[in-house]
């Protein structure tokens, strides 16, 4: 078993460390990957975060440490199989068999996600909620991309935004709402965006 419970946490095998160095053409004297960089004129006003989003972004996504963190997160989240039927427990074996072509497809821009498996689950208040379940490999790629983009994009989000953000959650939103009440605010606006994402394009 590749992922084992160990002292309350997960033991993470470093599935990507041993092979990532050999898949990018061009090496320097220290036997590390030398990325091919296309130089484009840059505005002097361009910010560092903006440049980071256009230079070697996929190299960062496909970096061994980033992929290993993404793998740990996908495994710890568990979840159902996607359209290909592969379970989280089978992901490690798949990586070992396909890792060279997998990393190359990320770096070359040829990786293509699989269709999302649609399922319906009952909602607590009645009715059904539509869920989309990506394959475990697609979840690995999505998590790896999230880990890279989050550090650039999250600082630009509204301070009043709490949903699906690292280090923030419903309890933080409730604490802020309590602070507003303590300030004497008396108006609450409740919006129910039922099935909004089902129709948003």
Which labels suit this protein?
two-stranded antiparallel sheet; two-stranded antiparallel ribbon; 7 helices; 201 residues; mainly alpha
SSE blueprint:
Blueprint: E1 4-6, E2 9-11, H1 48-52, H2 57-61, H3 64-77, H4 91-108, E3 117-122, E4 128-133, H5 136-153, H6 170-182, H7 196-199
Antiparallel strand pairs: 1-2, 3-4
Helix pairs in contact: 3-5
> How do the strands line up in the largest sheet?
1-2
The helix content, as a percent range, equals 25-40%
In terms of DSSP E residues, the strand content is 5-15%
**Overall average residue pLDDT:** 79
Overall radius of gyration: 21 Å
Morphology: globular
Largest sheet: 2 strands, antiparallel
Low-confidence stretches: 1-12, 24-46
Compute the separation of the termini in Å: 42 Å
| Broad structural category | mainly alpha
Number of strands: 4
- The helix-strand sequence is EEHHHHEEHHH
- Number of helices, counting only DSSP H or I runs of 4 residues or more: 7
Explain what you see.
Helix 3 packs across helix 5. 38% of the residues lie in helices and 9% in strands. A hairpin with a 5-residue loop joins strand 3 and strand 4. The N terminus is likely disordered. It contains seven helices and four strands, in the order ββααααββααα. It is mainly alpha-helical and 201 residues long. The strands form two sheets. The chain has a two-stranded antiparallel sheet with strand order 1-2. A two-stranded antiparallel ribbon has the order 3-4.
